[in-house]
Write a structure and sequence with these properties.
Helix content is about 50%, strand content about 15%. It is an alpha+beta fold. The strands form four sheets. A four-stranded antiparallel β-sheet has the order 4-5-9-8, with helices on one face. It has a three-stranded mixed β-sheet with strand order 3-6-7. The structure holds flavin-adenine dinucleotide (FAD). Flavin-adenine dinucleotide binds next to strand 3, strand 5 and helix 12. Its cofactor is FAD.
Length: about 400
């Protein structure tokens, strides 16, 4: 087990500086354009693929960094560049993690390369769990997968919503109900391969922020996928369902009714790190502006009212990063989240990003309120962190119930 450290080693510093260079030279200059276009920034993803940032290898390297700092450091730098573009670059990772976590070696080897494509023909992937009536309450999911034994195929029907890269993805990972009696224990994940008939993009959402990231509904109408597309395989699923039924019979299998699942603890610090990146970006713009903008014959930072705001912003960003790094170190080293430290880090970092970006607008005055300066976009972007991967209310629910020992239901 690696000791918790707050200091990046030489190798990590090198990776951070390289990512920062990409974020500053490629992502940030493209941010306003793709925000206005509200389209996936394919040329930027391709650039990221060329230099090796858009690849499973890169994320795997960061993920398995025993200090736990690899992923948060990478997320912070990319999202410092721009949140919408960075999500377009890392969004495929959501689906890839779904396959890595539940798939067999063969499934991992077959599907993950198809999620990323190659630098000449980049592809993206989508992870489709949320539904119109199943957001925070994942157990209310209705998309149904039924096994057709005669053909060894699964038939999937339902509507997914809010899917990042939904409909434009080469590979979709779809979570569906295989046993409605078991609530979220009766869910399973499926690969929907490229070009499968019956999968279509529904509405593409016009969003408040992260507008360079494509978000859409995904309609599944009698989608047939081979048995080999069930992640983990049928034997493992049958064993898992049998265990869940046994527990339900014994009275211990109560319906887990929301997204407040302990399994999310390990992935939430990564979202916290994205929020830290956006917050830091806005803080830096505000700090520079406050040092150069003069009113009443002196830089506005000479006013305590402005300087103290910046002091609070920086303090909160550093505190958020520390919570994120701690939780990420705990996740990598298998430490139990006895106080829901993963949720804690995401809650604090995302609320900090919202607050700090609003303060940045205030410090820039009228300029902050325009699209001539990036803090307006950063503030719109920051709002997503308190919503996806579990809302702030759900984080509080998880933390409170973990502390009180109440069941997550
Ligand atoms: C841009 C974007 C990208 C996304 N990407 C993906 C993706 O790639 N894949 C995917 O599957 N999903 C994705 N999501 C979905 C996201 O995870 C959900 O939006 C989120 O889980 C909240 O669900 P909901 O929108 O249905 O809100 P609801 O669950 O309807 O919540 C509405 C409000 O009620 C509150 N609330 C709900 N239950 C409780 C409770 N028990 N106690 C207190 N308050 C409560 C919530 O906190 C929130 O404030 C994305 C969403 C967005 C906006």
């Amino acid at each position: 087990m690696a000791e918790f450290t707050m200091e990046l080693n030489d190798e990590q510093r090198e990776v951070r500086d390289w990512l920062h260079g990409f974020a500053a030279d490629v992502i940030r200059p493209a941010a306003a354009e793709w925000d206005e276009r509200e389209e996936t920034p394919w040329p930027v993803i391709q650039e990221a693929a060329k230099v090796g940032i858009y690849s499973l290898d890169f994320y795997a390297q960061q993920y398995f960094d025993p200090t736990g700092l690899g992923i948060p450091m990478a997320m912070e730098e990319l999202f410092w560049g721009d949140a919408g573009i960075a999500l377009s670059i890392v969004g495929t990772g959501l689906a890839a993690v779904g396959v890595l976590a539940n798939g067999t070696e063969e499934q991992i080897g077959t599907w993950i390369p198809q999620m990323y494509g190659d630098q000449n023909d980049v592809k993206v992937a989508a992870f489709c769990s949320s539904e119109p009536d199943a957001g925070s309450d994942v157990a209310s999911m209705r998309t149904r997968a039924v096994y057709d034994e005669t053909k060894d195929e699964w038939v999937i029907n339902g509507t997914k919503t809010w899917a990042t890269n939904g409909g434009i993805a080469n590979v979709h990972v779809v979570v569906a109900v295989v046993d409605p009696e078991l609530g979220s224990k009766g869910h399973a994940s499926f690969i929907v391969p490229p070009g499968t008939p019956g999968l279509a993009q529904g509405q593409k959402f016009k969003k408040h922020g992260i507008r360079a990231s494509h978000t859409a509904e995904v309609i599944l109408d009698n989608v047939r996928v081979p048995g080999s597309c069930l992640l983990g395989g049928k034997e493992k699923l049958d064993e898992r369902l049998a265990r869940a039924r046994e527990r339900a019979k014994a009275g211990g299998g109560e319906r887990v009714k929301n997204a407040a699942m302990a399994t999310f603890e390990a992935s939430r610090p990564a979202v916290g790190a994205m929020a830290v990146g956006t917050a830091r970006a806005a803080y830096e713009v505000a700090l520079d502006y406050a040092k150069t903008r003069e009113q009443f014959g002196r830089p506005i930072i000479d006013n305590q009212g402005v300087a103290f705001q910046l002091a609070d912003m920086r303090t909160q960003i550093d505190a958020a990063r520390l919570l994120v790094w701690r939780a990420s170190w705990m996740a990598v080293n298998g430490k139990p989240f006895t106080a829901a430290e993963g949720s804690m880090s995401k809650l604090f970092a995302s609320e900090t990003a919202k607050k700090v970006t609003a303060q940045a607008i205030q410090i820039l005055g009228g300029n902050g309120y325009t699209r001539e300066y990036p803090v307006e976009r950063m503030h719109r972007d920051a709002a997503i962190y308190t919503i996806f991967e579990g809302t702030s209310e759900i984080q509080r629910l998880v933390i409170a119930r973990t502390l009180s020992g109440m069941p997550l239901r």
